[in-house]
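Appendix B, record 7
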Amino acid sequence: MTTIAIVPEYSEARPTSYRAIAGRVQSVGGTAGEALDAVTAQLSEAEIATLVIVQHQRPDQFFTADQQKRLQDLMARWRAMRIQRLLRRSRRNLMRSSRQSCGPPQPGPPPWSAGWFHESKLLP
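Structure tokens (predicted):
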């Protein structure tokens, strides 16, 4: 049986959406049901057997409102750091691929440095 986790995603830019995750398969929906339907549509027949357990995100004796708020804050920070890490990795890969496509650096000052371009080069 495949385990599917459905988690709310909070954003200031848009209303709450829900992400359903089943291993490597993910989908997002406006409601938990939409996310669940979208992710199950991507599963094979053998994985479709589903048992749904609903956990309400309300404070209780085991997880207080303050703890839930703290978890939301930590998850938001984690997501922001993950995005920053992905951006840095993409930037490094882009720089690496551009260096490989341009070949080794040429000797002498780079074209944008002072001294490379001189007015005398404009005169015949």
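Remarks on this record: The chain has a mean pLDDT of 80. The two ends are 80 Å apart (CA to CA).
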